[in-house]
Amino acid sequence: MNGLVDVYVQQFKTTLALQVQYRAALVIWVIGHVLEPLIYLVIWSVVSTSTGGSVGGFTTGGFAAYFILLMLVNHVTYTWIMYEYEYRVRHGALSFALLRPVHPIHSDIADNVSSKLITMPGMLLTAVGLALLFKPTFHLVPWAVVATLPALMLAFLLRFLVEWTLALAAFWTTRVSAINQMYFVAVLFLSGQVAPLSLLPHTIQVAATILPFYWTIGFPVELLLGRLTPTQAWTGLVAQAVWLTLSLVLVRIVWRAGVRVYSAVGA
Amino acid sequence: MTTIRLLGVFFRVGVMSELAYRVNFLVRLFQSLLQLGTALAGLAVVFSYTDTLGGWRPDEVIALVGVYSLVGGVIRLIVQPSMERLIESIHDGTLDFTLTKPEDAQLLVSVQGVEIWEVFDIVLGFGVLTVALSRMGESVGAWQAGAFAVMLLAGGAIVYSFWLILATTSFWFVRVENVLMIFQSMYEAGRWPISLYPGWLRFGLTFLVPVAFATTVPAEALTGRLNGQTLLGALALAAALLVASRLFWRVAIRHYSGASA
Question: Considering the domain boundaries, does residue A27 fall inside one?
């Protein structure tokens, strides 16, 4: 166990050093992560203003609060692992990771968390700036704020595992960009990125409650906004836990099968 | 004439190098369709709650999505890959070979990269635009169509000059491609009418990163929203940027001493 802690600490240090070198790349990621929620925030604000101040239970200020928090939650839970894996498999860089005595997922988690620690202050400042510009209305409920903490942790782990599993598609195909794109479309509509889930057609809402995407982004946002009842909150946490268990099983199966078909480039 | 001939040559090279990977044809077609479908589905969600968006009717926003796809396709077909190659060749010194060729160097570096499958986005964008126009009916006259074509060319010239100026700065700076990636991520904002955005963002999308000229302004011309002032302004800006980028390129080349010198 001690060894694993060392792995994390070392990976934190390495990533910090790396990220400080590539500041410009970080800025690009941040712009990408701010722009999309900002666009939908503007669109829904316009719609809400033109239809008398509210749409489907969201006021103009409510949309602002929703999308600003969505931006933050999305930033906490996102990964870029699918791009990494394509490179690792294609260039054979994975071979080195396989030689190490610890499972490569640990260094990826540490890498992800530490790079977010660096970008988080910037994101928070952006959120404050957007809050000043768009005047969101928050109705924070104490128990919901407390419950958001485990929900956010579960959301991070769940999304990480789902996307890490998806990234392993690189073992079987070199055309992962098409697979990634399909995944991003699913996330866009099913996680609440394009609009709060309650504004989408009924069939999409049903699909979203069954599939994992909503639980990784939309659920923590709506929980923190105080829009959910205690029962809904519990249901959500259970759904997250169930999906997390399922994805843990899935990631093991896919990883084993993937490593078996992996023939290192240059070997 | 030389421009067209050179474009033809590089196109042929692009086609030939891609024909080796024939499955890419279907995969890229699928990706283009998916992207367009996503954009239209997003519109469907928004327009299920309202009839007009900042004064734009559904068909007009669909036309804008067509323009967005069309112009984005042209940028990714030739402008972006060429400029990326230019930056790369400045870094690794292969630009010297281009400079020794008997054609105009700016022309050569501007058409040297062709990402052939981006043609799908252009064709699909054109298709969406046509469908949207036919649904809008007789509201598009010859005047609007002409203004649209002119604004499309002006927008293209502005975006091209913008990229060329930035790419040219890599004679002095190292990480210019990052700035260009910012353009790509900002371009997404052009899928919606720029007039919806708050003032500071509108300003940024018009003058810092010329997204507005690439998508909204041509779409405005098509839907009869364009006033003479914007039209002349866009033309003047296009002409000024074309000249400025040309001059800047010449200065950069004059100060360039080659990689091996």
Answer: yes
